[in-house]
Specification:
169 residues; Arp2/3 complex 21 kDa subunit ARPC3; two-stranded antiparallel ribbon; 8 helices
């Protein structure tokens, strides 16, 4: 006799993706005010693998960082990071992971691609809104600082996540 395999797998995947998102945050190219990291890649990949439950590691990542565990970019931690210019992007990971996860519960490839795209746009929306609010800069300037430099890299991350998902299934 043994325990529930599904719960055990969920716990293991949650721990794995919290760790991967953290490692992705530590791999950072400093671009002020928002650094280029691999966190979005692992958030989206969590959605592919964990489906709707991908919101759990994304939320735990946020909670761990708020509790001063150095999980954010460049080993930063604390509520100050969440309230700082990058906080909106971090908060956006939770609904983004959920969107990708829900899309990957379906077999439709178009829906899966749209899920990755919508999730990425959602991270940008949360991030730009908070960047503008927290720094007092205009929305257009927040888009120039928080979206434009990341478009090519995030497009490549999205394509990579999609193809990894295709290989896994």
């Amino acid at each position: 006799m043994y325990g529930n395999e599904q719960k055990s797998q969920l716990i293991a995947l949650t721990a794995t993706f919290v760790a991967l998102i953290t490692v992705g945050a530590w791999i950072s190219v400093p671009l002020p005010p928002v650094p280029l990291t691999l966190t979005t890649f692992f958030v989206l990949l969590a959605g592919v693998i964990m489906k709707r439950y991908a919101a759990i590691p994304a939320a735990l990542y946020l909670v761990l960082g708020a509790l001063n565990i150095p999980v954010f970019h460049n080993g930063l931690a604390g509520i100050g990071v969440i309230l700082g210019p990058t906080g909106g992007f971090i908060v956006g990971f939770i609904p983004a992971a959920l969107i990708v996860g829900l899309a990957y519960e379906k077999k439709d490839r178009t829906l899966r691609i749209m899920g990755i795209f919508v999730a990425t746009v959602l991270i940008y929306a949360f991030g730009v809104a908070w960047l503008s609010f927290s720094t007092g800069i205009a929305l257009a300037e927040a888009i120039l600082l928080g979206v434009v430099p990341f478009l090519i890299g995030d497009a490549l991350k999205g394509v990579a996540v999609y193809y990894i998902g295709e290989r896994i299934e």
